[in-house]
Amino acid sequence: MADAPTAPRRTLYPPIEPYRTGRLDVGDGHSLYWEQCGNPDGKPVVFLHGGPGAGISTDHRRQFDPARYNILLFDQRGCGQSTPHASLEANTTWHLVEDIERLREIADVERWMVYGGSWGSTLALAYAQTHPDRTTELVLRGIFTFRQSELDWLYRQGANEIFPDKWDEFLELIPEAERDDLVAAYHRRLTGDDPAAQLAAAKAWSKWEGETVTLLPNPHFIEEFTEDRFAIAIARIENHYMINKGWLAEGQLIADAGKLKGIPGVIIQGRYDCCTPPATAWDLKKAWPEVELNFVPDGGHLYNEPGVLDGLIRATDRFAGR
């Protein structure tokens, strides 16, 4: 697959406000914040944010033509404006798949496009493979599927060789005797009873990820990732999903790619994505030949890097008229 073109590049649509917001009680003590933006009569799309645990932002709305799309965005369990904050109870991939279906009913649509990046791509694949009859198209970025090799890349061997100085910072909190399983070591601290230790672990966990997701260093981005409330949610929830391997069998989402047959799809993948390396996107492409895979030659992991964003906007524009 050839690398995507680099110019001229598309950018975000102008800022918009929701025309409708609400909360959904999904049981187990969880209440989800959701919003709809754009054209109420437009093409339905659900936006699935990353993390897990990151939440939605106002810029996420702007990846879709507001005149042509009816956009539903929501904060997944435990993050953003959803409550309770940073909760791990009844918070699994399959709970979220059920939540998406409940939100589809609130949106009063039969089928919709599913858009997800990073962890959002995992959730999008899980949803589409469970409900292919409800999925019109898939737009995915930074493919992640919870295979052991992908977990090892971030937390054992791989990204540490590209960011050795940042890796050493990540290790500092963990005694050498516990470093054979960093996900488990951080889990003990993120779920422990000491609030100070929990926050320190959350900041270290979130900062390590923040260092790997940008093509070039971005101090402002690291500040956002280490803000107390954000760090607690993303670190606790993300680690909870990592230690449970997303409640997925090894290789499940790629093995089940045949369930996506007939669903048009586009993958935008940064060539130099050090958080979710391109090998996973390539493996998914081989298992799902119909999908269009575009490698961005100067792209990392984040959706708002110029080349990655260009590819995403072009994909949403292309599907807007279907």
Protein architecture, described:
- This protein is of the alpha/beta class and 322 residues long.
- The chain is built from twelve helices and eight strands.
- An eight-stranded mixed sheet has the order 1-2-4-3-5-6-7-8, sandwiched between helices.
- Helix 1 (93-107) crosses helix 2 and helix 5 (164-172) packs antiparallel against helix 7 (195-212).
- The mean pLDDT is 96.
Structural class: alpha/beta
Helix and strand sequence = EEEEHEHEHHHHHHHHEHEH
The CATH architecture of the largest domain comes to 3-Layer(aba) Sandwich
Largest sheet composition: 8 strands, mixed
What is the gyration radius calculated from CA atoms? 19 Å
Descriptive tags:
single chain; 322 residues; alpha/beta; Rossmann fold; 2 domains; 12 helices; 8 strands; globular
Write a brief caption for the model:
With 322 residues, the chain is of the alpha/beta class. The protein contains twelve helices and eight strands.
Structural topology:
Elements (H helix, E strand, L loop, with lengths): L19 E8 L2 E9 L4 E6 L20 E6 L18 H15 L4 E6 L1 H12 L4 E7 L6 H8 L3 H4 L1 H9 L9 H9 L4 H18 L6 H7 L2 H16 L8 H4 L9 E6 L7 H10 L4 E5 L9 H15 L2
Parallel strand pairs: 3-4, 3-5, 5-6, 6-7, 7-8
Antiparallel strand pairs: 1-2, 2-4
Helix pairs in contact: 1-2, 5-7, 6-9, 7-9
